[in-house]
Structure formats: C-alpha cells, structure tokens
C-alpha cells in the first residue's frame, strides 16, 4: 500500500512538472510593419503579455505589409497590429469613412477569408480619410494555443484616448524607446 502511494505520488509530480514546463517557454511573435504607431502598440501588448503570463513575446518588424501577411500565412506571426484603413484595402472593400463600420467589416472579412480574428480596437487615430482604428489581430492557431490571450489584450481597449496616444507616439518619434514608453504607460494604468 505504501509503495503504490509512493509511485502514485511520483507519477503526479512528473505530470505536474511536465504541465508546468508546457506553459513556460511559449514564444509569441508579433509582426508589424516599420511604423511608430504599430511599434508602440506592439510594445504595449508584448509588455502586458510577458508581465502577466510569462510568455516570451518577440516583435518582428517587416519592411512592408505584403511581407508581414506572407509571414502570417506561413504561421511565423501569431499577432499583428492592423488599422481599419489598411484592412479595407486588404479585403478589397472601398474605404469607409465611419471607423466603426470599417472595423466591423474588417473583423467579419478577416475571419471569413483570412482566418484571422480581430480583437477590440486599441485606439482611434486620425487617418487620411477620417478616423481609423488600430486593433490586434490574432491567428486562429494563436487563439487555440493561448485561449485566454484575447481577454488579457482587450484590457488595453479603451484606456488609450486619442490625445494620450498622440503624446505617447510623439515621445516614441522623438527617440524615446517604445518599450520604455509602453512600460511606463502600462504601469501608470496599473496593468503591470
């Protein structure tokens, strides 16, 4: 009886040890074009995810959107930061002046045609044709491997007001490190 209890205990320790290692060591790649907007938002997501889950997050900068979407299709990127203006072009829809309508169209079309899931918008910014939304977009593979990720990332939604975002972006453009700007902002909002 004692021996079988000991064996059961050892088996339990081995199983729990393997489960613990399964969470640690996950790597999540965020792909962005070379833009201060996307870099700042990617740093916020990367910092939040790393601090709250222990998942290693890498930000990969691509020279253009074509290269980025090629990496997404190959499975090299789990998250990208997209804006509604560019998304409408990607799904061959006319530019939409209403940001909410553009967001809903992009969300629906990306899911249906690209197997990508839009999360809540992070910020609304002025674009060439009016207001545009920036939002994280996840691959279905990322969503299935990290099902709690949307809830965590959506905590960023609504905390970035346009004027505060403009100040943060100005700091990044004036040579402040995006990681530091993102970390300081998240700390000020008590998210990390």
Question: How are the secondary structure elements laid out?
Answer:
Elements: H1 2-23, E1 27-33, H2 36-53, E2 56-62, H3 65-74, E3 79-83, H4 84-90, H5 99-114, E4 116-118, E5 123-127, E6 130-139, H6 140-145, H7 149-153, H8 162-173, H9 178-188
Parallel strand pairs: 1-2, 1-3
Antiparallel strand pairs: 3-6, 4-6, 5-6
Helix pairs in contact: 2-9, 4-5
Name of the level-1 CATH class: Alpha Beta
**At CATH's second level, what is the architecture?**
3-Layer(aba) Sandwich
- The residue-averaged pLDDT reads 86
Molecular shape: globular
Signal peptide: 1-22
GO molecular function: transmembrane transporter activity
Protein name: ABC-type glycine betaine transport system substrate-binding domain-containing protein
GO cellular component, one term: ATP-binding cassette (ABC) transporter complex
Structure description:
It is a single chain. The protein is an alpha/beta fold. The chain has one domain: Periplasmic binding protein-like II (D-Maltodextrin-Binding Protein, domain 2), CATH 3.40.190. Helices cover 56% and strands 19% of the residues. Strands 1, 2, 3, 4, 5 and 6 form a six-stranded mixed beta sheet that branches. Helix 2 crosses helix 9. The termini are far apart. It comes from Geotalea uraniireducens (strain Rf4) (Geobacter uraniireducens).
């Amino acid at each position: 009886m004692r021996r079988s209890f000991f064996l059961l205990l050892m088996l339990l320790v081995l199983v729990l040890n393997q489960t613990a290692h399964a969470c640690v060591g996950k790597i999540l790649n965020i792909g962005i074009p070379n833009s201060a907007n996307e870099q700042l938002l990617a740093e916020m997501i990367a910092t939040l995810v790393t601090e709250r889950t222990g998942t290693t997050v890498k930000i990969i900068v691509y020279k253009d959107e074509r290269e980025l979407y090629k990496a997404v299709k190959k499975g090299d990127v789990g998250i990208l930061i997209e804006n509604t203006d560019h998304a409408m072009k990607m799904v061959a829809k006319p530019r939409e002046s209403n940001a909410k309508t553009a967001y809903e169209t992009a969300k629906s079309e990306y899911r249906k045609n690209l197997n990508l899931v839009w999360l809540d918008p992070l910020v609304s910014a002025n674009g060439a044709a009016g207001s545009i939304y920036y939002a994280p977009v996840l691959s279905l593979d990322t969503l299935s491997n990290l099902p709690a990720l949307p809830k965590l990332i959506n905590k960023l939604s609504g905390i970035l007001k346009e004027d505060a975002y403009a100040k943060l972006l100005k700091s990044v453009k004036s040579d402040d490190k995006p990681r530091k700007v993102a970390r300081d902002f998240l700390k000020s909002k008590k998210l990390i």
